Amino acid sequence: MSKILIVMSAADTWERTDGSSYPTGYWAEELAAPHEKFVRAGYTVDFASPGGVAQPLDRHSADPEVAGPDCAHYVEHAERALREFGPLLKLEEVDVADYAAIVLPGGHGPVVDLYRDADLGRLLTAADSSGKLIGAVCHGPAALLSAVDQDGRWVFAGRRMAAFTDEEEQLFGTAEGAPWLLASRLREMGAEHSGGPAYQQYTVVDGTLFTGQNPASSGPLADAMIAALAG
């Protein structure tokens, strides 16, 4: 099987506890780096989101002072990949059997919608039970929270994983006013969360679950998944 599914959020704003709205979107490197690596390795990559909605770019990920000197490349690649793919698939219409792996990039969108999306939960539960690879980076691991079984138990409880840390959220300036913090929530739900230095590459592999802490972890996450798929 030679297809990879990248699942994007459909959210463009993040409602804060003070009633304000924080603009959000996909983070260019977290989408582009895995896409580029999977395509180079010979995989076909599909994009899906809730309702097939095309999420905008998070403009922070196009700012070299925030996202680093390579951000223009990632923005160009991500925009071209999405444009050439065309309308996104609707999550409710996706058959997980068509894919070798599911990848969940970040931006803050997943903490807005994907963490409670029932269609995504169904896909992730089926993917995990059938031994397919699942990758999530930065805020993407929030989407894993959608996977609950018939008894309401979280499918990924007890699994080792990385995610954007509370420290990184604070350094980014978005911790205050956040309805909840991702790393703390994952631990509360039973994950064995661990983290590395802020904004430095850090990935965790637990069986078929591959997670990365931040944008810098996007490429290494894809490399690890490609190696596992080939192995």
Q: What would you note in describing this structure?
A:
The chain is of the alpha/beta class and 231 residues long. The protein has a single domain (3-230), classed as Rossmann fold. Helices cover 31% and strands 17% of the residues. It is built from seven helices and eleven strands. The strands form three sheets. The protein has a seven-stranded mixed beta sheet, with helices on both faces. It has a two-stranded antiparallel sheet with strand order 2-3. Strand 10 and strand 11 form a beta hairpin. The radius of gyration is 16 Å and the shape is globular. The chain starts with a strand and ends with a helix.
Secondary-structure blueprint of this entry?
Blueprint: E1 3-7, E2 13-15, E3 21-23, H1 28-40, E4 44-49, H2 64-67, H3 71-85, E5 89-90, E6 101-104, H4 118-129, E7 133-137, E8 160-161, H5 166-172, H6 182-188, E9 192-193, E10 203-206, E11 209-212, H7 218-230
Parallel strand pairs: 1-4, 1-6, 4-5, 6-7, 7-11, 8-9
Antiparallel strand pairs: 2-3, 10-11
Helix pairs in contact: 1-3, 1-7
Keywords:
7-stranded mixed sheet; two-stranded antiparallel ribbon; globular; 7 helices; lyase; 231 residues; Rossmann fold; alpha/beta; protease; hydrolase
